Amino acid sequence: MSWFLGFLLLVALVAWWRRESQHRRRETAHARRAQDLLREHEVLRNQRTLAEANLEIILSSMQEGVLVLDKRRTVRLANPAAQKLFNLPEEYTGRAVLELLREPAVDGMVIAAVAKSEACEAELNLPARRPPLVLAVRVAPMRDASGEPAALAMFRDIGHTKRLEEVRREFVANVSHELRTPLAIFQGYVEQLMDVPDMPRKEQAEAFDVLDRHTRRLTALVEDLLVLARMESREGELLPEEIALPDFFSGIARDFALRAKKKGVTLSVDVPADIAPLHADPLRMEQVFTNLTDNALKFTPVGGTVTLGASLTGKEFLLWVSDTGQGILSSHLPHIFERFYRVDKGRSRDVGGTGLGLSIVKHIARAHGGDVEAESTFGKGTTIRLRLPNL
Q1: Rounded to an integer, what distance in angstroms lies between the CA atom of residue 376 and that of residue 333?
Q2: Cα–Cα distances in Å, from 139 out to 87, 102, 343?
């Protein structure tokens, strides 16, 4: 009997042990599943944090302005470029895009993207802004995290590109115009020489003189265009040396001495003998002051004076060519360094100008880390002055 009771007790103990083992296994499995879920949650959280950080880095580094808008057309996110572009307030989230941007065209594009799932593109001119803006705008439909309709708007400033395109068109038009006149003259005189083979010698000489003059004008134009192209493409690399300014300006004056004498113009040099040497490309500096001296002599009448000068003020060299010529009206001064700009178009062509000389001077000055400026009083004369750093 005691043996039977012992057996029953053993059976009960085994059954209890099995139940406990199963319970513990279930608890262990639950604990493992919980740990797995925690690990998965941590991985997902880290991935989300990393994705948000990467998104923030991408948006912060973009030059384009980016706005994220919800279905109510309120701004949910704006990257730094968009905040700067539209001068957004610190508390911009949750406010309507129309209220923030005050541009109905953008609001209409957002409506189309959210309501009709249509991507829209447009060019937006904002002349009232300072500085004026020209923006390429694209608004595309998207879905937010909850699956609701939303929109992504991107703004790219194309004002600089537009200005460059306008400059390019103007440049092509100006070059075409400058080439058309001498070519038309060539054609007319060549046809005349062909049609009248027994033209009197005197008339032939006059025709050849005109052809020679316009050939030299075309050659000068092409050479100036090549110099300007090299300067702008940076192919014309600077080769700086120490330039002794008294000797340099005396050399320029010697080159033009005979021409000044024939025209009855006094050509002088005003450079301190002890001035420090200028660290610059001597060939480019010669281009600059040959050009400026040539211009000054062209527009200075008999009895006038042209002066080449230099001074050193602190860390800046001032180099100039001044004349007592006809001067320039104040309305023209801001434009004289633009390509093909002529104060007196008729007279400039008569004296052989290409309209590119002062533009080349400006490029050379800026290539040396300096700049150029003009000072003039109409009827009394003009001074063109370079400001170059004392390196």
Answers
A1: 8
A2: 20, 16, 47
Q: What are 267's two structure tokens?
A: 């050509």
User: Mind listing the pLDDT tens digit of every residue in the chain (391 residues)?
Assistant: 555 555 555 556 656 666 766 767 776 777 677 677 777 767 666 665 554 455 566 666 677 888 898 989 999 888 888 888 888 888 888 899 888 888 888 889 999 888 888 888 988 887 777 777 888 999 999 888 788 888 899 999 888 777 777 767 776 776 776 677 777 777 887 888 888 888 888 888 888 888 887 787 777 777 777 776 766 666 557 889 999 999 999 999 999 998 899 999 999 999 999 999 999 998 889 888 988 998 899 889 999 999 999 999 888 999 999 999 888 887 777 778 776 666 554 444 444 456 677 888 888 899 889 999 988 888 888 999 999 998 7
CA–CA dist 125, 366 (Å, integer): 31
Residues 241 and 233: their CA atoms lie apart, in Å, by: 22
Contacts of residue 225, defined as CB under 8 A and 6 or more positions apart, other chains included, come to 175, 356
CA distance 327 to 308: 17
- Measured over the CA atoms of residue 235, residue 245, residue 356 and residue 218, the dihedral's sign is negative
Q: Cα–Cα distance between 158 and 148 in angstroms, integer?
A: 32
Phi, psi (degrees; rounded to nearest 5) at 206: -65, -40
Domains (range + CATH), the chain? 60-157 (3.30.450.20), 159-237 (1.10.287.130), 239-391 (3.30.565.10)
Amino acid letter, 288? V
Of residues 174, 172, 170, 178, the one with CA closest to residue 349: 178
Alpha carbon distance 56, 86 (integer Å): 19
Question: Is residue 166 a contact partner of residue 152, using CB atoms and an 8 Å limit?
Answer: no
**Sign of the CA dihedral with 164 first, then 165, 171, and 172 last:** positive
Q: CA-to-CA distance for 338 and 371, rounded, in angstroms? A: 14
